[in-house]
Amino acid sequence: MSYPKSVRIVEVGPRDGLQNETAALSVATRVELVDRLVAAGLGYIEVGSFVSPKWVPQMAGSDQVFERLVRSNETTYAALTPNMQGLQRATACGVREVAVFAAASESFSQKNINCSIAQSLQRFAPVVAQAQASGIQVRGYLSCVLGCPYDGVVSADAVLSVTEQLLAMGCYEVSLGDTIGVGTAASTEALLAHLVHSIPVDRLAVHFHDTYGQALANILVALQMGIAVIDSSVAGLGGCPYAKGASGNVATEDLVYMLDGAGIEHGVDLHRLIVVGHWVCQQLNRANGSRTGLALERAQG
Ligand code: HMG
Ligand code: MG
User: Fold this and answer.
1) Which residue stretches of 74-139 are H helix?
2) pLDDT tens digits for 191-216?
3) CB 121 within 8 Å of CB 162
């Protein structure tokens, strides 16, 4: 079986993780979380989002988080921007990488960003163009690629069409989101096989929520198909407030453990990361969702 030699891990805990927690962390604690993740070796951190604070109050203050961060040139500090207002906020605090986020299902698009898929793409086009003109890189997200909490089944052709439109618009890659974690190894393989007929694998990333415990199996399939960018969240935090029943992302600790087992390079110090996972769960007063984090904590007594 062949795997990529190395992968880029996109750590989404400070954004996807915290956006779904009932307790909002202070700006200082959010900055500390990002700093700790960087110190554990993560080279790409999604720090926050410039969305409406009425829609996602947990992400209010992302501006201050960026302003307080002492950023290193070796690390990418990214943020979600759903519209021009979001991009303006990101630009004002010196963000160098943003992400626009679309959906493959109409109902999720309406619930999450209050517009249709076509309207969202029309809204993103000037955001991407303006970002590029300012030297800001743009990543694309596509939600509900393996199922929608409102519409159920999502067709692979719908996923292909929106992915192609995001790439044509100027997104350098599209992260395929199994937002509610319903995908299995078989459905992941079928979807990716359909996509890679027309899209180069190096333009694709995967983003699995672990609601049904399938995320690592699905990631393994993606790796075997040559995808080398994987989104994950420290301690398995995460979920989308507009995706009923969605649980956390695959835990970064569990992903790193699996990559180590396959000899795939990733640059993360697992033991330091595990400490970060336990620390953030204490801050949030919640259980740690990383099986590897819990197992190694027990093993160390
Ligand atoms: P809307 O209500 O249609 O927006 O929301 P609007 O343009 O009509 O503006 C309404 C109000 O929002 C105005 O304020 C605007 O100023 C304000 P008011 O005049 O009423 O006081 N507003 C903003 N404020 C701050 N920053 C902004 C901004 N934009 C408008 N950027 C909107 C449309 C897109 C803004 C809203 O629906 C929204 O914020 N949605 C975000 C939802 C969200 O963040 N979801 C979670 C992230 S996506 C995700 O988790 C999935 C992912 O992980 C992948 C996966 O798992 O599948 C990425
Ligand atoms: Mg997500």
Assistant:
1) 84-92, 106-113, 117-133
2) 999 999 999 999 999 999 999 999 99
3) yes
| Cα separation, 144 vs 183, whole angstroms | 10
CB burial string 269-278: b at 16+ within 10 A, e below: ebeebbebbb
User: Across residues 259-278, what is the average pLDDT?
Assistant: 98
The ranges assigned to domains in the chain are: 8-300
> How many other CB atoms are found less than 10 A from the CB of residue 287?
10
Q: How far is the CA of 141 from the centre of ligand 2 (A)?
A: 9
Report d(CA 176, CA 162) in Å as an integer.
Answer: 11
CA-closest candidate to residue 208, choices 152, 271, 147, 123: 147
CATH of 8-300, one of 3.20.20.70, 2.40.160.10, 3.30.565.10, 2.60.40.1930: 3.20.20.70
Closest residue CA from atom 42 of ligand 1? 112
240 assigned to active site? yes
CB of 82 closer than 6 angstroms to any ligand 1 atom: yes
pTM score, two decimals? 0.98
